[in-house]
Design a protein that fits this description.
The structure holds two protein chains of two kinds. Chain A is α/β, with parallel strands linked by helices. Chain A contains 14 helices and twelve strands. In chain A, helix 4 packs across helix 11, helix 6 crosses helix 7 and helix 12 runs parallel beside helix 14. Chain B folds into two domains: 41 residues, Arc Repressor Mutant, subunit A (Orthogonal Bundle), CATH 1.10.10; 81 residues, Lrp/AsnC effector binding domain/regulation of amino acid metabolism (RAM) domain (Alpha-Beta Plaits). Chain B has five helices and six strands. Classes of the chains: A alpha/beta, B alpha+beta.
Chain lengths: 390, 166
């Protein structure tokens, strides 16, 4: 790009940092024989019944737009699903919106609520998109840094420390990417008290809600008084292994949902029709497949986290998602140095914790959504790598 | 017999991969190696785990000739022993790979493996049809195995995911 054309790019976008993951991806992609623990998506292919339902919809010629909010039948299925799984009640006609992935849902939520200069609290280490999406919506992301020694649990006093008169909302993510930490009912209730006290709104990213392994899951809007203060963001990518379908949804009280729908109808029109038909099948008949995948992740989690601890990388047992977030403090390296050397010397790709925010420094994210054979080989290579460092 | 949650987990894991190292199996189920050994021994002794078998794709082996047939067998059950006696007479032949008692149009489903069609035909006409209780047989030869006991043959299960993703 010449200097002249560059000046056309908006100041906001120019200032935006490219995702730290991107650079790492380019390096890993250029190498052969890499075992990648860097992938933030399931290793399962979408279940056949869902793919087959999508194929059928194409054969039958369902290729036109749907309603802006998505197929009513899908919204009804989502409402029924949220009710039976999490005890949440949303009206399919006015409180649910089908989006292009949970990512679009996040974008809509932020654009619908942020006034210029409003502050939005982001809990770090966090998914790489939150901060930039807040900025693009005209807001100011404010970090809360959770602590590895506290298993990256969000503590209410940490929120209070950063609250200002401009604070509008808080983005929650449980189970968390990259730490796998799950906030239980008590943790959430404590957060809820602060939210109420300071009249905040919560964007609750529950994309990994299907993937918890130890305790029953609590959805944030299920906490007393929180339904009216929550924009619930979720989707099909992780639990139903449907990342490439780009299908998510958002549930919120009517006034908020209608605001998001306004943006959505101009900016997106509707989510892809064929993917919506697949999602209907996923919700109607996919529960067994999700149960099987969850079981498989849990076993691999147990194996992998125990093995990390065995080779000397201290790691808490994450309650959900499919990430282990071990400390690499023993090596004395930064997370970026560690990840780069591990990739070059042993061809194992992990993601430096620093890309998820400052408090991710000293940790690396390893996805255990890989075959057991790959995980075993990765552990072998990591062990060799660590022993060379001593 | 009632299995504990851990025993059930172990059985499910082994059903898909019997060669998993015991250390790995122990970690996956959050048990110690010793605890896992005790459970395995109990499962083996009680014959919940009957055998550790391997699925072979014989088509890939040069020089391996062989045919598999599924035979629908109608039989007359006997007073007191029902179908069990004739089933036993049939399954004792080593070329018989499986025998199932079926609901529906016939009684026993018998799977036979032989080196050639002639060999299978010989078994059906000489051994199976001549049994006293057998009324009729219908033989179907298997032309190609796509999926066997939950395993897809020739599965191109490459990982299509990008290397690093958020």
């Amino acid at each position: 790009m010449t200097r002249a054309t560059k000046t056309y790019v908006s100041e906001t976008v120019s200032r935006l940092q490219p995702s730290g993951i991107r650079r790492f991806f380019d390096l890993a992609a250029s190498m052969e024989g890499v075992i990648s623990l860097g992938v933030g998506e399931p290793d399962f292919v979408t279940s056949w019944s869902v793919r087959e339902a999508c194929i059928l919809s194409l054969e039958q010629g369902y290729t036109s737009y749907t309603a802006n909010a998505g197929l009513l039948e899908l919204r009804q299925e989502i409402a029924a699903y949220l009710s039976r799984k999490f005890g949440l009640e949303y009206r399919p006609e006015s409180e649910l919106l089908v989006t292009v992935g949970a990512s679009q849902a996040l974008d809509l939520a932020l654009r619908a609520i942020v006034n210029p200069g409003d502050e939005v609290i982001v809990v770090e280490p966090s998914f790489v998109s939150y901060g930039p999406l807040v900025t693009l919506a005209g807001g100011v992301p404010v970090s809360v840094r959770t602590n590895g020694a506290d298993q990256f649990k969000l503590r209410p006093q940490q929120i209070e420390e950063v609250i200002s008169p401009r604070t509008k909302a808080l983005i929650l993510c449980s189970p968390n990417n990259p730490t796998g930490t799950v906030l239980n009912r008590e943790d959430l209730a404590a957060v809820a008290r602060i939210v109420e006290k300071h009249d905040l709104l919560v964007i609750s990213d529950e994309i990994y809600a299907e993937l918890t392994y130890d305790d029953p899951y609590t959805s944030f809007p299920a906490i007393e008084g929180m339904r009216e203060r929550t924009i619930l963001v979720s989707g099909f990518s992780k639990g139903f292994a449907m990342t490439g379908w780009r299908l998510g949804f958002v549930a919120a009280p009517e006034a908020l949902l209608q605001a998001m729908l306004k943006i959505h109808q101009y900016a997106m029109m509707c989510a892809p029709t064929m993917a919506q038909y697949g999602a209907i099948e996923a919700l109607k008949n996919g529960e067994h497949d999700v149960d099987e995948m969850r079981k498989s992740y849990r076993r691999r989690r147990n194996y992998f986290v125990q093995s990390l601890n065995d080779i000397g990388l201290c790691c808490h047992l994450p309650g959900g998602a499919f990430y282990a977030f071990p400390s690499i403090a023993v090596t004395g390296m930064t997370s970026e140095q560690f990840a780069e050397r591990l990739l070059i010397e042993e061809k194992v790709a992990v993601v430096p914790g620093s890309v998820f925010g400052k408090s991710g420094e000293g940790y690396v994210r390893c996805s255990y959504a890989s075959s057991l054979e790959q995980l075993q080989e990765a552990i072998k290579r990591m062990k060799r790598f660590l022993s060379r460092l001593q | 017999m009632k299995l504990t949650e851990k025993e059930l987990e172990i059985v499910e894991i082994l059903e898909n991969n019997a060669r998993i190292p015991i250390e790995t199996l122990a970690k996956m189920t959050s048990l110690t190696v010793e605890e896992t050994e005790v459970i395995l021994k109990r499962l083996e002794e009680t014959k919940v785990i009957v055998q550790y078998a391997t699925i072979i794709d014989w088509r890939k082996v040069d020089g391996h000739e062989g045919v598999t047939a599924m035979i629908d067998v109608k039989v007359t059950p006997k007073r007191g022993v029902g179908f069990d006696e004739v089933a036993e007479r049939i399954y004792r032949f080593p070329e018989v790979k499986s025998v199932y008692l079926m609901s529906g149009a016939y009684d026993l489903s018998v799977v036979i493996e032989g080196r050639s069609m002639a060999e299978v035909a010989h078994f059906v006409s000489e051994k199976l049809s001549t049994l006293d209780s057998v009324i009729s047989t219908t033989t179907h030869f298997i032309l190609k195995k796509y999926k066997h006991d939950g395993t897809v043959f020739d599965q191109g299960d490459q990982d299509r995911r990008i290397v690093v993703a958020p």
